[in-house]
Fold these 3 entries.
Entry 1:
Amino acid sequence: MKNMIMNLELKKHPYLSAFIIWLYLFFAFGYFETDSVVTISYIVPMIISGIIVYLYSLKKEKIRKIPEKNRKAPLYALGAVVVSIAMIYTFAHVPTDDFLTSRNSFVPLVFLSAGLAAYCIFLSVKKKWSVNRILFCIFILSCIVHLFYILTAKFFVSQWDMGSLNSGGHGHLGYIEYLFNNFLPLQSDPREKWQYYHPPLHHFTTAMVLKLQSLFGGQIRTTIYNVQFITMLYAMISSVSVYEICRELKLRRLSLILAFSITALSPAFIYVGGYVNNDMMATMFTLLCISCTIKWYNAQRMGTILKTALFFGLGMLTKMSAALIAFPIAVVFLYALIKKLREKDMKSFRGLFGQMCAFVGVAAPMSLYWSLRNLLRFGIPIGYIPESTIEEQFIPESVPRRLFDFFSISQYSNPYMNYKGENGFNEYNPIIALIKTSAADQAAAKDTVGYLPGLAMFWLTVVIASAAFIMMIYILIRKNTLPFVLKLFFSVMYVVYIYSYISFCIKYPYTCTEHIRYTMPLIVEGALFIGLGVKELKKQKKLYSKIIIRCVTIAAAAFCICSVYTIIKIGSVLTIQWMTG
């Protein structure tokens, strides 16, 4: 048992480690058929997890340790103590009415945060910090914050197209309930029910998890609250995928930590990871495709390209927008084929061509199934999106103004998205809306976080996004930073997602279309280029390079801290609201 636990680490078994951590969170803090749970229900899992963490910490890692001169054990220990005191202070000042005898989200926040702080103190005192353990702590912190958010916001606060849970209900909840009861997608025209036009994988997976719970006596009215635990798992796997991509790009030490932390602690990943809809699952499969595509180019094996095909097909069975990643993937495949032709290596060319045929053989049936089914049975056009007629979200501004007006002061007076005519207009600039929705979710943050923290989160997001864009240009135009094919891959990916997003916003001029959930992979791409830029600047060993690296590091740290504060503030306010009525 000890050896098994000690071998579960982020570096060797990242996806398995993430899944085991999720299982613990799900069974310890999920909603089942129990309306009231005493505090001991949380303390026992905490003791077990403490033992696991202790055994994990005993393992001697084979990765290179941080040099003695870079160890700042007192600083780390002080930070952990401050976090612990802050959590205990928050815990002590929550209204006490039925607090310890009710299922309350502050309990897991306090105990899990204290456990993480204790682990950090242990590593500092024993001088066992390593890059991999820093990443592990960042990952656990993101899980704690995400757990706190979904336990407090539930799915009443901030959702898109959620619908209702009743017999024959509409929206994503209705879709899940229909599959829960019938196992098969709607056998009539999906356009008859709102949101049923989506491919069924996310909704079916969720329904089957709920069905499994029902076998043990759970009722769907209770277990439905665990839907967000499932999308949380997608977000955790997405973070691990980013870690895998970073390793393939040979990011190390500071560059790896920056790229991973910006993604794992991004508020957008926590918000979208709490949605009932299929956005997070589609993002997860897209990131898995990116990881496998880069792995395939580095070592062109049949198994890797089949994994890419599988993840692409599953993404298409989740949401049709997953098709966007096909364009950069195709660029890598074509480049590899053309390269073999130019080298006149026909044997390798035939081998690669065979692999790509296998890719099509796996991906095509899965990708086309839902569209062809609906086209042949109900005459629904491929790529069908229902027309929206939400008058309160309509954007009347002209296309040129929407695309090129970046300087109107009114757009920056509100750090949150102007929605339903707030401040006299609906948010109309797609890029500004993209930044605002990635910094703070409108419904969750506006009435809970406040103006100044929201303003700080917005401008820190602007700084990180600007740094990412500048670093991207720097890496793309500079020689010997990335293989040409990967430069091409990321360039095509960026253009495709930006073009698709802006086209979508123009074709459907409503505020609901101006949201980061449609371009989540761009957050990862930006984080990767920040890591790549820092890696390249460190090679130069010049004064201006050191200054830029330090500024980017400070900005990224401030971004992550502000993000964690924002989510905890949302959860704290919502918890007090639930408790005080």
Note: The first helix runs from residue 2 to 6.
Entry 2:
Amino acid sequence: MIGYLAQNHPLVAAFRSLPKTRTRPGARLAQRIFKTAPKLSDYFGEGDILAHKGDLDRPISGLALDSRRVQPGNVFFAVPGRRTDGQAFIAEAIQRGAVAIVGGKMSAGTALRVTYLQVADVRRALAQVAQRYFGFPDKSLDLVAVSGCHGKTTVASLVQHLLASSAQRVGLIGSVHYDLGARTVPAYRTTPESLDLHGLLAQMRDAGCRQAVLEVSAPGLEQQRVSGVNFGVATFTGFAPGNPEAMEAGFAAQAGLLYGSAGQSARAAVINLDDAHGGAFAAWLGRRMPSSFKVVTYGEAAGATIRAEQVRLNANSTALRLSWPGGTLELETPLLGRYNVSNLLAAFATCHALGRDLSVIAARLKSFGGVAGRLEPVMCGQPGRVFVDYAHNADTLRHTLRELRALTPGRLLVVFGCGGKRDRTQRPLMSGVVQEFADIAWATADNPRAEQLGQIFTDMQPGGPRAGALTFVEDRRRAIGLALAAAREGDCVLIAGKGHETTQELADTIIPFDDRQIVRALLGSLCHQPA
């Protein structure tokens, strides 16, 4: 996260090698800085360390988990990864100036002026130390977690929009960007590593934010990036299908969001009652959480706390009656489809759990402009409608296509692809989903990375009687152009997979590529062609 988190440059400079002389001003300045520098022992509590070699009272300049970003005086956390183990980069970290190494096993290194620490779980230790290093920023913010298999980005963005006002900034960490209060920066992943996460929360706190909304992805939860974070409310949009044994483990994993540091627990959980497992999860929590804990449910089901009634779906907007204990309200939004009804309910249920008056904040829905790359319309006076969407796996693609199929009077035309170096089992599934719903479809490149596009296309080959209706086009721009040229009045074109992304990842480079800009350029060209 270069450029996102500012280093303490004077402190880092103090750790750099200086000529051995007591008369140089730089040496005297370094000595003064060292006296006020944080020490390694400040950030490890009793029982955190299994074993160590070296001085625990050593001054430090910061934390790092990527050896390439180690600065002089840093503590390097040798985090185990899926492809590589941080233990393999200890020598590089020391060469770059690390003064302490934290790992899951005691390092054999004996480098002078380096302290080695062994901990039971490196990721958990990183989360705890980062939280302490940045001064527990999560305790200064009323945090909302949004987790689940669908709609996290839209729900998180809606909650932020409904909570924010001219007098109060609300931070956001999500798939599209990180809103830090004083500035907004592009997101590098949905849920940042714990070190980056607490640094970002500290920036929100220092910018005057008092609330923040965080998308929590499945990898973010699994890899303990939010371990120990003190959330006030956690919203669960849905669970992936699974057998009863797997669901019990899934419930326990999701419930981890409700427990912060020092035994602190969240005030409320918001649960999708329309999800197949929502009711079971609500009951599961009811048996385990304290009596003061509140469960708020949402959905179209009759027993939901926050309900949608009289839902009217059409091609340009969605209307419904919002019902909650103590009131009802008529809503209309340009957000399309039944799954966006669920997203709206999740956002309002979250605000209700936070104690907000829904009749007051509902007025802010009118100014919500949608989420970049989430069923984002691109209109340039063309016949039919064009949408750009981030759907990039079989499940999300099915949700999106089902909604568009129901709202499209004409044909449904789809451009999609499968990412390189990603789950290969998704490829035929995605092709099958497109075959099920689309009238015409083009398969093309979608961040092929270091994988041959031909191999990706081979994996995408669908079976069934309509396999010939899928055309493979290597050039994504050309595939988009073919779809736009084929569209007629009443048709709908979906450009799926990249959504808000502005680049295309190839084997050895990253090039600018924004589906929305490509669509606008091509539509402008088509609209100016002579009849």
Note: The chain has three domains: 9-132, 137-367, 376-527.
Entry 3:
Amino acid sequence: MLDYKDVSFSFNDRRRRRRRRRLLLLLLLALAGSAFFGFHCLKAGSAVSAIEDLLLAGKLDEAGRRLRHPPSPLLQRGNFRELQALNDLCRGRLPEAASRFEQLRRDGGSTSLRSGRFLSLFFSRGEYDKLDAYAGYLLPRGGDEPRWFHALCRAAFLDPEGAEKAVAGLSPRYRAANAKALDLLARFNRSLRAGRVDFVFDRNDAPLAYYDLKLRSSRPLVPGFDFSPFAAQFNKGARRFRLTLDAGLQRSIDRLFHGLFGTLVLLELPENAIVAAYSRPRAGKPADAAFSQAYEPGSIVKLVSLLAWLRRDAGPPVRSDRDVGTRRAPPAVGAGRGGLFPLQCPGHLAVGGKIIYELEKHGTVRDHSQALARSCNVAFALMGRAAGHDALAGLLKRFFFNGPAFSDRFLSFATGNFDVQAGDESQLARLASGLGGVTMTTVHGAVLAAAFAQNGQHFSPFLIDDAKNILNLGFYRHESEPRRLLADDLNFLNVRKAMAAVVEDEKGTGARLRGLAPRLAIKTGTAGNPVGGLDAVLVGFLPADEPRYAFAFRLEGAGRSDVHGAAFLRRLIQVLYPQ
């Protein structure tokens, strides 16, 4: 039997318990909602941070993929929109980025990105156009950082008054913390007000050119070099360039060219740093002729022809009485299949119904080394025929003929060309002998010599060693990347020995340089015609045994390479090795 005398019961208690249960349920739902919302906020915040890191690291493709499918809580919407604008900016799409920034500015609201890191990134890279776009977007929000980078942009865009006005708005605390940078900026503004800024320097930090603010162009301090590409970059935002050139050597080469026209390029091995690049073309030719003007190289192409012949597949001998152009030509005495040497050079050769002539009758040509040393057209016509058009054309392409220009940041160094279409035997013979059908630039010739000097290892030629922004902070430094053109050291060694024989053979085309120290490895070429004036073209490297320099030069209308080219090279060696 139950006793209820001590138990109280009320409908009010029941209602209270129900209210408590509802409140507890609502509280649990609120906590679950907050956790869900907080999780997605953290996820979105993490996504924002990850995309920022990708953009700052230059991983633009991955950042773009993530921006196409972002988490979208309302609290992060502005950040994602700003990141999309920054992605455009980092990719160099300035109009798209500016449009996005303008829309964000009109819509109002705030974002919480690490904007200072992007401002610093653009400045450290010397990307003033990007820096100006982002700093201009942030400037209305106030703060020292956007104002400081805006001041740097004004100075970089050659506006000292605008820079000083922006600096005046900085807080005393920020000015004190950045006193050294402010002093550098003030020094740069003073140079702007003086109307002259030294902005291109040689490898020893001697000035090569200054920028004239009144004329808005560069003024050279050394002869024979065109600084207009650097001035064009300076117009986009002030910066300082250090080149691989040697100012003293450039002036010495100018003295060598007294009374002469032509071009010269000197490379420092192994990385093909351009130590000298001199252009003194005839009227109407480009100011950067050493890098852009193509011309017939004459017998220089025989270097590639010789390598093609040395690499040929073994096959039957390729010579006959008709090929050699005389009824009394001796038989081939080469060892093994495909023997060609020794051969008799009568001074001309009939090929495909046409005659290939020599400057002189060479008589007996003992071997391929003597053929190169004496630049025998008859021998090379036969060697080209033995190698075949495809092999010769393939090697010419491998040595950058018909290839894209070498590039160095915003600079371009043109290469040569040849007619890739297979012609008749006469055309092949002329191509292999360097008697037509091929062109070369001076920088290309120096690169060709460098490749033989280093047994087929190649570095792209470069001129810009480093670049700095207006506070002298480096944003670029050249890094060389070697490439092997051919894994064929033995045949390269044979060509190198033949190039040394050009000087050391008593009847070599470089015999006038015999006994000169250091030992040379060269190839001479004579192009043009006596009526218009013969051009002396010469490429090579030195010292022959342990190469330090590779070079090429062309003397327009100066005469034969074995005479006038050799005399010029002698004077150049005396400049490089004065003792």
Note: Confidence is low (pLDDT under 50) at residues 314-338.
